[in-house]
């Protein structure tokens, strides 16, 4: 067994901060806790397929785990980490189980001892032994934890999969993607920078095997082996295309979107994209000397390919298997097809603070320069001492405008001149709902392109859906219950998924609860998102913004002038190589962080 | 390569038309790809049904793109346009299902009319129309096919080639660089067929089609299975398969192979006689910035479904091991190559220097000890005819050299399990001065 000790990424926020200060060039280790489990997938034709998947757990107690998924969780190793450890448990149950393991072709495992069909590890000792596992096995007892460690990690896109009886276990679903960037936003080097990424993991299902495994008949006369493999379902990211599939967010016009394309299936595929060329930059985690301009990608079984795309026009781009696995069983209109949604480009959010004046980082360099394009504005500060700052696109998309909220009354700089001009040039709203303790929230609740107002009152949200600035009650306006029971929580808003609509969330002492699916209710993960970002920074307050300009709002915290921004969008602080730290507002006691496009 | 002897015994009568055609003399001095050219770069395609023939006697229902009011054809018309042209393709649909066209590799294709589909707008069944417009901004070899249920409709035949000629030397270059210069160009649109699907559609059982059990037993180049690949283009015997594939060249010339993966399987396409140099894929030169400097020599190129590859092939007789013209040095038979030139024996056009004046290395067996094929001229020398038994050598009236070019997945050299056939043709090298008669 491989032994390894280290720290948890998800709880390593403080330690990571320390690392920023004291560690330069020292290698760090990423850790994941995975557990193999039985799960099911429901196909568009209502067939229910028994799968084996990996669930991600928070620590070595394996008490807090997400649901098992196929593909398994993406292992996004931060650039600063040169070592990866996966702690594995095996909770496979049912009529037929096997020991499992994890291998990552292309990365260097610290140990690679095979296990033979008689169960013995090490060198082959007699000719009746055949190999059963490429590496140490984790038995299906849901107790034993086996550690798999890879050192000297290479940058790139990799497939991880079970290395035990892969003829069965890979088909059953024990696979996923592992990625590591060379540096923040750089896949391999400065020539392969990207603004956003999409993982496209191709795989297949032959239900006959899954039925045999579920029924315990695998290896018997009725289903002796996978010899007659004939897949019937063709998946991208674990799901075949169907009419209810939603487009994948794939960056913005003019920006560089990295497609990480993997094939966990047994057949070669040829993804073809309509209307675009791809710059194919790497294969099996090895960067090409020269990129290849192609609209098709030859994707052999087990292979990974990386390609950049820079779309010139917004819209939906179909990418599909030109080997024509475009059916769900025999029914056309499904299979390996995904739609990539490219949105109009927007500039990245800039930061600012309010403390009896507005300090706005118009240059976007993350520091207060005191000269244009940074700006110091006094919107409303003399007439409304004690009011809370609010910002938004009151008159539509474009430059973010200022506003103040004072006990239910809103003063909005509608004309955007940075001065309170009174009505009708500016807007004065009375949004009278909730208790006096209600705090302001803003967002484009309906995808109209215009920021609207609302208040958060101890877990109850009141949103001005119709945009008239007044509370009209249901159904003209809207309410949500999100955050009740978290008395210290503060509301956060943003377009968490690049949907074009602002969604809600709350921040409670470093834990973020985000309404990813946009239904206004907390559904737990994975439907919604729970992040740990800011734990241990007792004075920190949340701040959200589209830090990369890719159309997706990401999280951050502001702690007395120090900003920690989640640039890569994984909801965790990965250090300054991957994420970003700014000093802006130090010395302005009581300052409130802002984000916008000034 | 299989022996010609066995091959020729099974060539059906269709090939006779080649021999007749060869005897008719030259119509074109230069190989050019059969296709449709439009002064306005506007094309009208009609999706309709028809039947293709296979050399084993088969006849299969197809859906294909017809050129305007013409017959269904497989593959669809090869659309030939110039770089920079604004291309309009009007699609009329006479099928009983919606149909469409996608043009991978073309950017900003706008569709007008029709009904929204998954990939593009579609022409509704039974007389519907839709129109596509795009600017052919980059030269190269491209494909087009139905974006509507492509798993079925591409199999049924709704696929074709698009050629965009470069602004520079459009008649003799594939791209805007001299690395793509050619003397003759040929299309190799490769596809396969599972006849069960066509039979199900023909018998009204389309709902029973199951692509997950796909098992092709027929293979095509430009819509024809060998030996029909070698029959003339626009043969009246093959009214729905107008395109042939009979590459020809003189020594030292360059052939451009425009290869397209039109089906769903990979086909390792193999050139006998010499390597070819793949210079472009998907309509883009393999380049680090200077011509086709990243081009790759290969004797087999895997043709990828939906993808295209362009390659340049040349042949000079280099390393053949004898002087293919039968030159000999009368001054000193041991002085070959440059020495033979110095002794006054000039090189023929395109001839490799190394074997110049090298004697033929073996004594040919007598006729009684040989089995003959229709491609053998009776002589080992290019452009020469030797003694043959009556009735032999009929396909080679000018003493050319034949090389089989074929899929190297050997099962694909059959028609319904009968060898030879399928994805196979002959490349013919004719002596300098012999006119090339194809297409
Ligand atoms: Cu051969």
Please, could you describe this protein's structure?
With 598 residues, chain A is mainly β. Chain A has 3 domains: 3-181, Immunoglobulin-like; 198-343, Cupredoxins -  blue copper proteins (Immunoglobulin-like), CATH 2.60.40.420; 350-596, Tachylectin-2, Chain A. Chain A contains 3 helices and 42 strands. In chain A, the strands form 11 sheets. Chain A has a 6-stranded mixed sheet with strand order 12-11-14-18-16-17. In chain A, strands 2-1-4-8-5 form a 5-stranded mixed sheet. A 4-stranded mixed sheet of chain A has the order 13-22-19-15, with no helix packed on it. By secondary structure, chain B is mainly beta. Chain B has a domain at 322-360. Chain B has helices spanning 4-9, 16-23, 150-156, 195-202, 338-342, and strands at 36-37, 42-53, 59-67, 79-82, 86-93, 110-112, 115-116, 121-122, 129-135, 140-145, 159-165, 184-193, 218-221, 248-249, 254-261, 267-271, 276-281, 284-285, 296-298, 300-303, 308-314, 401-407, 424-429. The longest helix of chain B has 8 residues, at 16-23. Chain B starts with a helix and ends in a 10-residue tail after the last strand. Mean pLDDT of chain B is 91; it is low at 1-30. The interface between A and B is large, with 35 and 39 residues. The structure holds copper (II) ion (CU). Residues 1, 270, 272, 404, 406 of chain B line the site of copper (II) ion (CU).
């Amino acid at each position: 067994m491989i032994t390894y000790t280290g720290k948890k990424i998800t709880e390593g926020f403080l330690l990571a901060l320390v690392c920023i200060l004291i560690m330069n060039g020292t290698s760090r280790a990423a850790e994941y806790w995975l557990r193999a489990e039985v799960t099911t997938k429901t196909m568009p034709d209502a067939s229910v397929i028994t799968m084996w998947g990996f669930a991600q757990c928070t620590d070595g107690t394996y008490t807090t785990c997400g649901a098992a998924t196929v593909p398994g969780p993406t292992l996004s190793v931060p650039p600063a980490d040169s070592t990866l450890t996966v702690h594995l448990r095996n909770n496979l149950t049912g009529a037929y189980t096997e020991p499992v393991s994890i291998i990552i072709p292309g990365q260097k495992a610290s140990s690679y001892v095979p296990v033979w069909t008689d169960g013995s590890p090490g060198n082959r000792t007699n000719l009746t032994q055949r190999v059963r596992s490429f590496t140490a096995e984790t038995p299906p007892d849901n107790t034993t934890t086996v550690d798999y460690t890879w050192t000297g990690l290479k940058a790139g896109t990799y497939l991880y999969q079970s290395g035990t009886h892969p003829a069965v276990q890979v088909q059953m679903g024990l696979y996923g993607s592992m990625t590591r960037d060379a540096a923040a936003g750089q896949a391999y080097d400065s020539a392969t920078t990207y603004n956003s990424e999409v993982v496209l993991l191709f795989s297949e299902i032959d239900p006959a095997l899954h039925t045999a495994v579920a029924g315990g008949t695998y290896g018997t006369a009725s289903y002796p082996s996978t010899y007659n493999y004939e897949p019937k379902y063709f998946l991208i990211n674990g799901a075949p295309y169907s009419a209810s599939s939603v487009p994948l967010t794939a960056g913005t016009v003019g920006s560089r979107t990295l497609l990480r394309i993997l094939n966990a299936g047994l057949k070669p595929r040829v993804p073809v994209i309509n209307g675009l060329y791809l710059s194919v930059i790497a294969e099996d985690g090895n960067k090409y000397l020269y990129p290849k301009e192609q609209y098709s990608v030859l994707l052999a079984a087990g292979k990974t390919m990386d390609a950049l795309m820079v779309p010139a026009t917004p819209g939906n781009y179909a990418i599909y298997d030109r080997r024509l696995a475009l059916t769900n069983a025999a029914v056309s209109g499904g299979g390996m097809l995904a739609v990539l949604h490219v949105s109009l480009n927007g500039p990245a959010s800039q930061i600012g603070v309010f403390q009896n004046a507005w300090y706005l980082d118009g240059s976007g360099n993350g520091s207060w320069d005191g000269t244009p394009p940074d700006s110091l504005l006094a919107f409303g500060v003399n007439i409304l001492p004690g009011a809370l700052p609010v910002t938004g696109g009151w008159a539509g998309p474009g430059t973010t405008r200022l506003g103040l909220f004072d006990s239910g009354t809103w003063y909005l700089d509608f004309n955007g001149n940075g001065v309170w001009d009174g009505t009708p040039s500016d807007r004065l709203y009375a949004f009278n709902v909730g208790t006096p303790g209600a705090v302001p929230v803003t967002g484009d609740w309906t995808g109209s392109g215009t920021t609207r107002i609302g208040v958060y009152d101890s877990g109850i949200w009141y949103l001005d859906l119709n945009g008239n600035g007044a509370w009209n009650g249901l159904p003209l306006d809207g309410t949500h219950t999100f955050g009740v029971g978290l008395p210290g929580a503060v509301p956060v808003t943003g377009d968490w998924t690049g949907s074009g609509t602002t969604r809600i969330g709350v921040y409670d002492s470093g834990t973020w609860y985000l309404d990813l699916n946009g239904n206004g209710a907390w559904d737990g993960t994975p439907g919604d998102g729970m992040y740990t970002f800011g734990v241990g920074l007792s004075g920190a307050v949340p701040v959200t913004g589209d830090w990369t300009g890719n159309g997706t709002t990401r999280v951050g915290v502001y702690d007395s002038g120090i900003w920690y921004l989640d640039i890569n969008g994984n909801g965790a602080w990965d250090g300054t190589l991957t994420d970003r730290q700014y000093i802006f507002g130090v010395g302005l006691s009581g300052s409130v962080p802002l984000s916008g496009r000034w | 390569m299989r022996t010609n002897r066995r091959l020729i015994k099974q060539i059906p009568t269709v090939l006779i038309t080649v021999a007749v055609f060869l005897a008719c003399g030259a119509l074109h001095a230069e190989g050019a790809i059969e296709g449709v050219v439009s002064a306005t770069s506007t094309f009208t395609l009609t999706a309709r049904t028809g039947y293709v023939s296979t050399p084993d006697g088969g006849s299969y229902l197809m859906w294909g793109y017809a050129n305007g009011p013409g017959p269904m054809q497989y593959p669809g018309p090869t659309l030939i346009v110039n770089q920079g042209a604004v291309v309009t393709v009007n699609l009329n649909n006479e099928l009983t299902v919606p149909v469409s066209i996608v043009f991978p590799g073309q950017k900003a294709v706008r569709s007008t009319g029709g009904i929204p589909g998954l990939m593009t707008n579609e022409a509704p069944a039974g007389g519907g129309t839709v129109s596509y417009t795009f600017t052919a901004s980059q030269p190269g070899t491209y494909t087009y096919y139905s974006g509507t249920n492509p798993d079925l409709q591409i199999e049924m035949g709704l696929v074709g080639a698009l050629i965009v000629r470069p602004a520079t030397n459009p008649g003799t270059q594939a791209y805007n660089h001299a690395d793509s210069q050619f003397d003759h160009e040929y299309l190799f649109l490769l596809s396969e067929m599972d006849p069960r699907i066509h039979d199900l559609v023909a018998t009204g059982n389309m709902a029973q089609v199951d692509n997950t059990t796909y098992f092709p037993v027929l293979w095509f180049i430009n819509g024809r299975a060998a030996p029909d690949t070698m029959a003339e283009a626009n043969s009246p015997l093959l009214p729905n398969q107008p395109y042939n594939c009979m590459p020809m060249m003189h020594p030292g010339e360059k052939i451009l192979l425009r290869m397209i993966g039109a089906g769903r399987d990979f086909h390792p396409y193999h050139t006998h006689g010499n390597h070819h140099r793949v210079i472009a894929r998907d309509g883009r030169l393999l380049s680090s910035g200077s011509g086709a400097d990243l081009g790759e020599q290969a004797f087999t190129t895997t043709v990828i479904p939906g993808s295209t590859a362009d390659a340049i092939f040349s042949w000079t007789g280099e390393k053949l091991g004898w002087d293919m013209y039968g030159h000999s040095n009368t001054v000193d038979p041991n002085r070959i190559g440059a020495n033979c030139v110095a002794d006054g024996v000039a090189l023929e056009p395109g001839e490799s220097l190394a074997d110049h004046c090298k004697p033929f290395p073996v004594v040919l067996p007598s006729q009684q000890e040989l089995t003959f094929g229709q491609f053998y001229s009776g002589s080992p020398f290019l452009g020469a005819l030797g003694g043959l038994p009556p009735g032999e050598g009929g396909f080679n009236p000018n003493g050319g050299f034949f090389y089989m070019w074929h899929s190297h997945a050997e099962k694909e050299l059959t028609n319904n399990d009968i060898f030879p056939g399928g994805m196979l043709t002959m490349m013919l090298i004719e002596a300098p001065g012999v006119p090339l008669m194809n297409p």
